[in-house]
Specification:
- The chain starts with 6 loop residues before the first strand and ends in a 6-residue tail after the last helix.
- It contains 13 helices and eight strands.
- The chain has a three-stranded antiparallel beta sheet with strand order 1-2-3. It has a three-stranded antiparallel beta sheet with strand order 6-7-8. Strands 4-5 form a two-stranded antiparallel sheet.
- It has three domains: about 5-70, no CATH class; about 75-170, Orthogonal Bundle (DNA polymerase, domain 1); about 185-330, hpI Integrase, Chain A (Orthogonal Bundle), CATH 1.10.443.
- By secondary structure, the protein is α+β, with helices and mostly antiparallel strands.
- About 40% of the residues lie in helices and about 10% in strands.
- It is globular, with a radius of gyration of 26 Å.
- The longest helix is centred in the middle third of the chain and has 20 residues, at about 140-160.
C-alpha cells in the first residue's frame, strides 16, 4: 500500500514541484510551483483510500495499525486491493495480451462500480444487481467481470481481509459463446482479392495460411532454411510449459514468408479486417485455416498441434509427437485455392 518511500519528489527546471507515484498499477502525478499545494493534492488523492493518515513534516504517510500493517482490514479500499491483486498476482498467471484485456474490462466495468467502497462493504446484492444488468447487454463481458471479481475476493479471503467471498452467493446465466465461423471458399477468394496492395495484406495472409492467433501475430519467427515457423504461444496457462510451437511453412504461406509486417495492434487490425469482411471476425481466419486443413485430409490432432490447441485428452497430449519431417510432408497437402 502507498508509503513515504513509494513517492518521488523533484523540482523541474521551470520551478514546478512534481510528486509522483508509480507503483501497484498506479500512475499519478501532483504538480505545483508551491510545494505545499502539490503536497495537498497528493494528500487529497491518498484520502480517497479512506485510510487513516497523518501529516509528516516532509510528506504524508499512512498510520500503522496495531499489527504493524498500513491499513485495518475493514478499511481496505477495493481500488487498492484490486490493483494489488491484478498487477502482483494475476499478471504473472496470464500472457500480456490476456492481461491487457482483463485490465481494459476492469477499468470499464468493474472500477466504476466498486472502487469507492471498502472490500468488506461490497455485498452479494450489489454485485448481483450489477451483473444482472450487464448480462442483458454484454453476456460474454459479464462472465469476464464475474471471473475478475471472483479472483479479487478469493484473494481477499486468503489475505484475511474478508471472511467470505460474496461471489459465492451471486448467480448469472451462462453466456453461449460462439467459436467462430470459417470463411467459405468464395468469401476467402473475395477477401484475398480485396486486400491486395493494402498495408496489412501480408499479415492477413500469414494469419489465414498458418492459423496463428491475433495475439500471436507479433511473435512469428520464420526460418526459411529449415522451412519452419516458430510461434510464441498466446494462450498458455501458468502451469503449461510449451512456450513456443514450431510448425512448417505451408505452401500458400510461402508467398508472404519474407514480408516484414512490423509491430501490430491486434485490436486495430481486427477493426480493419471487418472493413474487408464485415460478416466475420479476425479470429475467423484461424478457423478458416483449421477448416481447410481438415478438408485437405490433415489429421485433427496434427491440426491441433499447428494451431496450439489442446489435443482433447491426456493420452494424446502426452504421448502424441509428430516429427517436423512428418509435419512438413503433411503440410504439402494444404493447397486449396
Amino acid at each position: 500500500m502507498p508509503r513515504l518511500k513509494d513517492f518521488s519528489i523533484r523540482q523541474k527546471e521551470n520551478g514546478v514541484y512534481e510528486i509522483r507515484f508509480r507503483r501497484y498499477g498506479y500512475n499519478e502525478s501532483f504538480s505545483s510551483k508551491d510545494f505545499s499545494v502539490a503536497k495537498q493534492k497528493a494528500f487529497t488523492w491518498l484520502a480517497t483510500f479512506e485510510h487513516e493518515i497523518q501529516a509528516n513534516e516532509n510528506f504524508v504517510i499512512l498510520k500503522r495499525s496495531e499489527k504493524g500493517d498500513f491499513y485495518e482490514s475493514n478499511t481496505v479500499m477495493f481500488k487498492v486491493f484490486a490493483h494489488n491483486y491484478l498487477y502482483n498476482v494475476k499478471k504473472s498467471m496470464v500472457v500480456q495480451y490476456t492481461f491487457d484485456n482483463i485490465i481494459n474490462i476492469y477499468k470499464n466495468h468493474v472500477a466504476k462500480i466498486y472502487d469507492k467502497y471498502p472490500v468488506s462493504k461490497i455485498k452479494p446484492e450489489m454485485i448481483q444487481k450489477h451483473l444482472n444488468v450487464l448480462s442483458k447487454e454484454k453476456g460474454r463481458t459479464c462472465e469476464t467481470v464475474r471471473s475478475i471479481l471472483n479472483g479479487i475476493f478469493e484473494y481477499a479471503v486468503a489475505s484475511g481481509v474478508i471472511d467470505r467471498n460474496p461471489m459465492k452467493a451471486v448467480f448469472i446465466k451462462k453466456h453461449e459463446r460462439t467459436t467462430g465461423t470459417a470463411l467459405s471458399k468464395d468469401e476467402e477468394r473475395n477477401f484475398v482479392e480485396s486486400i491486395k496492395g493494402t498495408k496489412h495484406e501480408a499479415i492477413f495472409l500469414k494469419m489465414l495460411y498458418s492459423g496463428v492467433r491475433p495475439c500471436e501475430i507479433n511473435d512469428i519467427k520464420e526460418d526459411l532454411e529449415h522451412n519452419t515457423i516458430t510461434i510464441k504461444n498466446g494462450k498458455l496457462k501458468s502451469y503449461q510449459k510449451n512456450l513456443f510451437r514450431i510448425i512448417p511453412i505451408f505452401p500458400l504461406y510461402k508467398q508472404v514468408a519474407e514480408c516484414d509486417c512490423g509491430k501490430l495492434n491486434p485490436r486495430k487490425l481486427s477493426y480493419e479486417f471487418r472493413e474487408y469482411c464485415p460478416n466475420h471476425q479476425l479470429k475467423d481466419l484461424r478457423h478458416t485455416f483449421t477448416t481447410r486443413a481438415r478438408e485437405c485430409g490433415i489429421d485433427n490432432e496434427l491440426v491441433a498441434v499447428w494451431t496450439g490447441h489442446s489435443l482433447g485428452n491426456i493420452t494424446s497430449s502426452v504421448y502424441t509427437h509428430f516429427s517436423i519431417e512428418f509435419q512438413q510432408e503433411q503440410a504439402k497437402k494444404l493447397v486449396y485455392i
